[in-house]
């Protein structure tokens, strides 16, 4: 391993064919976080990183080295302290790095987050292991984490009997169902289809326990839950119960699709009606239910199961819960940055529909477009509107905004930070100035609004930032945009760790508004073909209304995706999607080596060419205009 003094002169090292890996580390500045420090730190690092990428590109190696991007404390993991926000600039790299992986798959760009002040031993272990398909990794003392994208409503479902056990990692995002065999009742036993399970702070501590492996405990992790409601499915005569009885079960390990327990653990009881203080969560929200139970041990926290009978569990029903009545109030002012843009205006319309009567729409220009005028007129019929001209990427602009709002009679009840601009550039075309332009409104502006909210808006009920799916998936031509969005993701998470409201929404492709309204038709078709679907603003904002009310949420991807199709277009075998896209690795490619070898050379070449063309077309989502044999899997993915 050779250390270089900087990334400005790695050319000689890259000419050495024995160099297999290049590691570049983000350098944090000292001092309290501020918009000025964030910008200066980003400039230091992105200028250097762009030079390194240019050097890698210029080297033109047939087998390029793997690129490792290292941060310290830029990702939050269980047990990490809240910190002072000094990691927020480095967090932008986790969006930029995802785009690097997309645009330069040959470099296999891998993001690694180390504990602050740690040595490089974990990184050396990663180099030695060379684990394929892992591109987002974090290390904490004695622990290695990999990042996964989880589905929403269908995260925790199973096509048969299931149970939910505590995760070995101590990370609630690792909660997952495992198969469990149903058992017929024996003498004096009852089999119950579980309807709902109560979770307590003890269940949360069990799920967060990272010491099981160190204690060398034998057997699988425990099943969560000790209290459940359900319906009797089968019972022996001696039990005193019959099929159809509504019951309450007290027994260890109740978070299962069905329970077979002694009759002494079961009592007749109708399913309890919810009352004030009762919190109900869907099965896919079990992690949030456990966090709630831990933070408020006195609360009644229930997880509603989608099954509860001999039938296979189905996906939870769509969440029709509306935002709580006190989330959007008529006696509060709601601030929307980027308020005269497409996303800002539809957001304002939704706020009014939920009961807002005082809106402050913030715009850098302060002038509504011709398309915005009729929307503003419509909103003015139901609410008092104030349009404020302010550049939220600058401290003086946010000070002007705060002054305008504080001069009004109503306290600020919520902020939606939808400001931002969009620009398409490949990383090879980027300069620091183009990155800075994208960071300005989103990342710097997000921090300045955080400072303003903390000091001036004590009655804030929600602080929502409009991020992008780009920071999660890493879309080509969006490196600078993804960096800015990743900064918002980290800001929202950091706020919630301090007990402040914070939610970052990684929006997918909105239809008809925002960036999608300006796309050329052929680009829209390409986006759809990739597996990213356009969805309506109404649907998007109905989802947002549910997200910002009541239950604590930090970051959510909101959109519609065909994950099998999306992953089929990946050239990297990224395991980030392995809980979403289930590819059939055993699919028959139609090749039989013996038969192929027996064919005459021209026929053999023709068959190989045909199959290769089909595979390339599948990966690139290209329509094939040549005759082809039927493929056994339309979304082939080979590693």
Brief description of this entry?
The chain has 639 residues and is of the alpha/beta class.
What labels describe this entry?
globular; seven-stranded parallel sheet; 639 residues; seven-stranded mixed sheet; alpha/beta; single chain; 18 helices; disordered C terminus
- Kindly state the percentage of residues in helix: 25-40%
Distance between the termini: 29 Å
**Main sheet, how many strands, which sense, barrel?**
7 strands, mixed
Shape: globular
Unreliable parts: 153-157, 308-323, 584-594, 621-639
Content-based structural category: alpha/beta
Given the structure, what is the number of helices?
Answer: 18
Structure description:
The chain is of the alpha/beta class and 639 residues long. Helix content is 32%, strand content 19%. The protein contains 18 helices and 24 strands. The strands form five sheets. Strands 8, 9, 10, 11, 12, 13 and 14 form a seven-stranded mixed beta sheet that branches. The protein has a seven-stranded parallel beta sheet with strand order 17-16-15-18-19-20-23, with helices on both faces. A five-stranded mixed beta sheet has the order 1-2-3-4-5, sandwiched between helices. Helix 6 crosses helix 7, helix 8 packs parallel to helix 9 and helix 11 packs parallel to helix 13. It starts with 10 loop residues before the first helix and ends in a 19-residue tail after the last helix. Mean pLDDT is 83; it is low at 153-157, 308-323, 584-594 and 621-639.
């Amino acid at each position: 391993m050779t250390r270089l003094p900087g990334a400005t002169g790695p050319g000689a090292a890259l000419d050495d064919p024995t160099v297999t890996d290049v590691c570049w580390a983000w350098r944090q500045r000292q001092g309290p976080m501020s918009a000025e420090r964030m910008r200066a730190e980003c400039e230091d690092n992105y200028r250097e990183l762009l030079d390194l990428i240019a050097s890698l590109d210029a080297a033109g190696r047939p087998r390029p080295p793997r690129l490792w991007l290292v941060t310290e404390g830029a990702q939050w993991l269980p047990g990490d302290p809240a910190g002072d926000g000094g990691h927020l600039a480095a967090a932008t790299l986790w969006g930029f790095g995802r785009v690097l992986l997309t645009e330069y798959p040959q470099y296999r760009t891998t993001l690694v987050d180390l504990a602050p002040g740690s040595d490089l031993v974990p990184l050396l272990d990663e180099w030695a292991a060379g684990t394929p398909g892992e591109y987002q990794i974090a290390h904490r003392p004695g622990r290695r984490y990999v990042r996964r994208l989880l589905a929403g409503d269908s995260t925790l479902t199973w096509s048969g009997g299931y149970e939910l056990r505590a995760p070995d990692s101590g990370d609630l995002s690792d909660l997952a169902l495992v198969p469990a065999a149903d058992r017929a009742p024996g003498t004096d036993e009852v089999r119950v289809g579980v309807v709902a399970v109560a979770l307590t702070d003890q269940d949360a501590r069990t799920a967060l326990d990272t010491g099981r492996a160190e204690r060398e405990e034998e057997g699988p992790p425990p099943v969560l839950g000790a209290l459940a409601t359900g319906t009797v499915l089968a019972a022996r005569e001696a039990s005193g119960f019959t099929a159809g009885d509504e019951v309450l079960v007290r027994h260890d390990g109740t978070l299962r699709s069905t329970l077979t327990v002694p009759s002494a653990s079961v009592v007749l009881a109708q399913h309890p009606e919810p009352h004030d203080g009762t919190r109900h969560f869907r099965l896919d929200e079990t992690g949030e239910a456990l966090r709630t139970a831990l933070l408020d041990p006195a609360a009644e926290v229930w997880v509603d199961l989608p099954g509860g009978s001999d039938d296979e569990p189905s996906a939870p029903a769509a969440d029709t819960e509306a935002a709580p009545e006190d989330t959007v109030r008529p006696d509060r002012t709601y601030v929307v940055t980027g308020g005269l843009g497409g996303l800002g205006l539809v957001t304002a319309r939704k706020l009014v529909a939920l009961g807002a009567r005082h809106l402050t729409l913030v715009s850098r220009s302060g002038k509504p477009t011709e398309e915005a005028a009729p929307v503003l007129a419509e909103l003015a019929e139901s609410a008092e509107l104030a349009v404020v001209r302010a550049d939220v990427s600058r401290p003086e602009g946010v000070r002007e905004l705060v002054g305008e709002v504080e001069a009004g009679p109503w306290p600020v009840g919520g902020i939606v930070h939808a400001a931002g601009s969009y620009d398409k550039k490949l990383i090879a075309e980027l300069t620091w100035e183009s990155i800075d332009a994208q960071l300005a409104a989103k990342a710097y502006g997000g921090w300045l609004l955080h400072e303003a909210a903390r000091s001036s808006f004590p009655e804030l009920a929600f602080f929502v930032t409009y991020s992008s799916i780009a920071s999660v998936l890493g879309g080509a031509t969006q490196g600078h945009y993804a960096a800015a969005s990743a900064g918002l993701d980290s800001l929202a998470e950091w706020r919630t760790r301090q007990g402040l409201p914070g939610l970052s929404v990684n929006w997918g492709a909105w239809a008809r508004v925002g960036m999608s309204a300006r796309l050329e038709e052929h680009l829209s078709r390409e986006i759809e073909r990739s597996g990213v679907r356009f969805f309506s603003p109404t649907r998007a904002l109905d989802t947002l209304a549910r997200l910002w009310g009541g239950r604590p949420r930090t970051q959510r991807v909101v959109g519609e995706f065909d994950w099998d199709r999306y992953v089929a277009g990946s050239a990297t075998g990224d395991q980030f999607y392995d809980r979403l896209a289930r590819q059939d690795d055993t699919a028959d490619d139609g090749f039989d080596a013996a038969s192929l070898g027996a064919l005459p050379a021209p026929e053999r070449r023709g068959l190989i060419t045909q199959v290769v063309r089909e595979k390339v077309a599948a990966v690139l989502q290209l329509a094939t205009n040549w005759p082809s044999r039927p493929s056994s899997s339309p979304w082939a993915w080979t590693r």
